[in-house]
Amino acid sequence: MIRILKSREALLVGVILVLVALIASRFPAFVAPANLVNVLTDTSPLIILAIGQAMVILTRCIDLSMASNLALTGMVCAMINVAYPGLPIPVIIVVALAFGAALGAVNGILVWKLTIPPIVVTLGTLTIFRGIIFVISDGAWVNAHEMSPAFTGFPRADILGVPVLAWLAIITAAIFFVVIARTPLGRAFYAVGGNPDAAVYAGINVGKTQFWAFVLSGMLAGLTGYLWVARYSVAYVDIAKGFELEIIAACVIGGIAIAGGSGTVMGAILGALFLGIIKNALPVVGISPFWQLAISGAAIVIAVAFNARAGRRKGRIILKRAEAGTNG
Amino acid sequence: MQQHAPQSVESPADPVLRLNGITKTFPGVKALNAVSLELYAGEVTALIGENGAGKSTIVKVLTGIYRADSGTINVGGTQVNFTSAEDATAAGITAIHQETVLFDELSVAENIFIGHAPRGRFGLIDTAAMNTRAQEILDRIDAPLSATTPLKDLGIANKHLVAIARALSVDARVVIMDEPTAALSQKEIEELYELVNRLKAEGRAILFISHKFDEVFRIADRYAVFRDGEKVGAGLMADVNEGDLVQLMIGRAVDQIFPVREPNTGEEVLRIAGYAHPTEFDDISLTLHAGEILGFYGLVGAGRPS
């Protein structure tokens, strides 16, 4: 029980509740159910992306190309919709998942087979993917009137008062809880990130495991690409530019250790929600959105400081007297 | 009338594991040079050698982590070819590595079964079955541990028990112990010897890597001595004494190992008295003189590097 209370997840839940309570004390409308659903829906892309990024960071890698993957896959989906307006949405979703996964596989292959550091690989593909958008679209926008109503309507469709976009975040979270906890691949993420040398002894292929983490993060970036373009009814070169930093921030705040091997899906979700609530609350409270960056930044620094302290506390106590001294 | 001749150390059956002409070269170094080695069921073979003699390389070749440049590995009469640690496990070779080869963020049971966890519905890991089986193995080796504890909550000695449990979670014909006593206290070492005897009785072949002669003489039936990547001697423990092994190991006679020293120490350059640290050590006093080498002696965790 003490373990649960001490965990990063519990701490974040507490912080989020305090934050919401503070905002609600001045602006009760913020906690109206309809507005909370709005906040969740608004944060859903970040939640889905943070879960994908968490898989990658767990394996001691990082995926800087997620936002570019999102924009490229979003553009591909939009252009397919323009060319074949009658194509059913499930097909578009499968295309988005597959195309995003393929882009993730490019990162994965480079990290696995050429053993290039992930930060270099994904910094490269970050630029390349954006470049490809420009090439395939000629720099032109795909606008709302060119997209079919079914294409743009899907993420906004209402099920039990909650938009499909938010449902998809919930479903993604549920699937990845199982992937992380109950599949050999999920456990291998922790093994590879926690102790890569030991993973080899356990018969785990480190590079291959990292490859699959990149495929999963790419897949989720691709899915979000379609949802993003459909929700905002526009696709162009620069959508979600710089968003990769927010994704990583959500993971770090959620307690996913940048050094790999430690963190939970719940942590990534709570980290994303924390940023999402701040983003949505600032205009309500009347603080300039520019402060949002400063607040996010401060949250990251505090989170990292927490992570570092948590790591240090592990120091063993060797002398009985010292042990008694710290207890008394 | 006895149908079978009793299997004794003197007349062993066919070896369970036979290495023949194993060579492994790293850039600039010949780590193993045409090494042969045989392990027999129900026997402990001690692998002895100085640091850099090729002991850990042969372990890595046997467990599928390194691939030999040339040579053959036979397990139970069939030639095998390992491309990964999984292949070695599948062939019935398991290794008890030092406790550093574990995962802090996983539970004890997950550490034991990583790579071969029992599967349930939809191919998902059957956590309940895994925990039950892990607990059975832990109980079998009298480890006072719960299978569901996170590994990071354990001390070094208990982590070592987890490493042993992991090796026993596969039904192995060959068990490799890579300096298993290095981090253990005397009591834990006694428990390990008991375990070795139990594995012997179960008919497993054991490769025991060590450079402590007392333990080698206590538990090994055979020896193999490595020096500079070559096997320089092998045979029955009963036929040798410590001096013979040392001579094989370093290639010189024993009386040359410790040449008489003429201490030529100068004035005191460092004095530490009553030095203490809140958690790591307490009331340490020592002096260091010019021209003197001071040896720190103690178990891992006794505060040596601090």
Any overview of this molecule?
The complex is a heterodimer of chains A (328) and B (306). Chain A is 74% helix and 1% strand. Chain A has 328 residues and is mainly α. Chain A has one domain (36-327): ABC transporter involved in vitamin B12 uptake, BtuC, CATH 1.10.3470. In chain A, α3 (33-58) packs across α9, α4 (66-83) packs parallel to α6 (118-137) and α4 packs across α11. The relative contact order of chain A is 0.19. The model of chain A is unreliable at 313-328 (pLDDT under 50). Chain B folds into 2 domains: 17-256, Rossmann fold, CATH 3.40.50; 261-306, no CATH class. Chain B contains 8 helices and 12 strands. In chain B, β4 and β5 form a beta hairpin. The interface between A and B is medium-sized, with 32 and 35 residues.
In terms of quaternary structure, the protein is heterodimer
Tally of distinct domains of chain B: 2
The CATH architecture of the largest domain in chain B would be: 3-Layer(aba) Sandwich
Count of folded domains of chain A = 1
**Chain-averaged pLDDT of chain A:** 87
Proportion of helical residues of chain A: over 70%
SSE pattern of chain A = HHHHHHHEEHHHHHHHH
Give the mean pLDDT of chain B.
79
Derived from helix and strand composition plus strand pairing, the structural class of chain B reads alpha/beta
